[in-house]
Amino acid sequence: MSESTLVLVRHGQSAWNEKNLFTGWKDPDLTQRGIDEAKNAGRFLKSEGIVFDIAFTSLLVRAQHTLDLMLAELGQTSLPVIRDEALNERDYGDLSGLNKDDARVKWGEEQVHIWRRSFDVPPPSGESLKDTAERTLPYYDRAIVPELEAGKSIVVAAHGNSLRSMVMRLDALSPEEIVKVEIATGVPIVYRLDAGGQVLSKRLLEGTAA
């Protein structure tokens, strides 16, 4: 057992991010800005000299496309990639596809804020952040932790809320703290972990890569 590296990356801007729509499990691709963000993330990781052993992503194209673009920049396109529904974005249920401003008109500012920013109140027919964590974290424990315990370097390209679940665990945050955490599109979060899985360091790779 030895130290390991875990890099979490939220997908680049999607077409529905740009339109201010609730996306969830809907499957829009990246915008040009999102493509640029993903490539920039790959260049940042290359400048760090990180060589990955395995990659994980969701079943949604915006995360997969982000991963592909990063790996191309890294020159690591032959990396084993595991795709799983457990890493999908939070399901926004009846909000999916709605403009966020229109949703506020329909249900009220306060109610929409509760759905978006509470830990355990789901939107109609959708998932809360708690529900998302209950889907994501067992998969993290089952599929990703053993690779980390083997001392491997791992990249996970996923979504704001599935990644929040992992950040909550890694940073030992409370439900009240995690709902305030923003995860930017296309910004790698680099964790160094010791042999027991404890976080040694955390860094965000931001700005414009060379």
Could you describe the 3D structure shown?
The chain has 210 residues and is of the alpha/beta class. It has one domain: Phosphoglycerate mutase-like (Rossmann fold, 3-Layer(aba) Sandwich), CATH 3.40.50. Helices cover 42% and strands 15% of the residues. The chain contains eight helices and six strands; from the N terminus they run E-H-H-E-H-E-H-H-H-E-H-H-E-E. It has a six-stranded mixed beta sheet. The mean pLDDT is 95.
Give the low-pLDDT segments.
none
CATH fold-level assignment: Rossmann fold
What kind of sheet is the major sheet?
Answer: 6 strands, mixed
Globular, elongated, flat, extended or rod-shaped: what is the shape? globular
CATH superfamily annotation: Phosphoglycerate mutase-like
Total E-strand runs: 6
Average pLDDT over all residues: 95
Name of the CATH first level: Alpha Beta
Question: What are the main properties of this structure?
Answer:
210 residues, alpha/beta, Rossmann fold, six-stranded mixed beta sheet, 8 helices, 6 strands, 42% helix
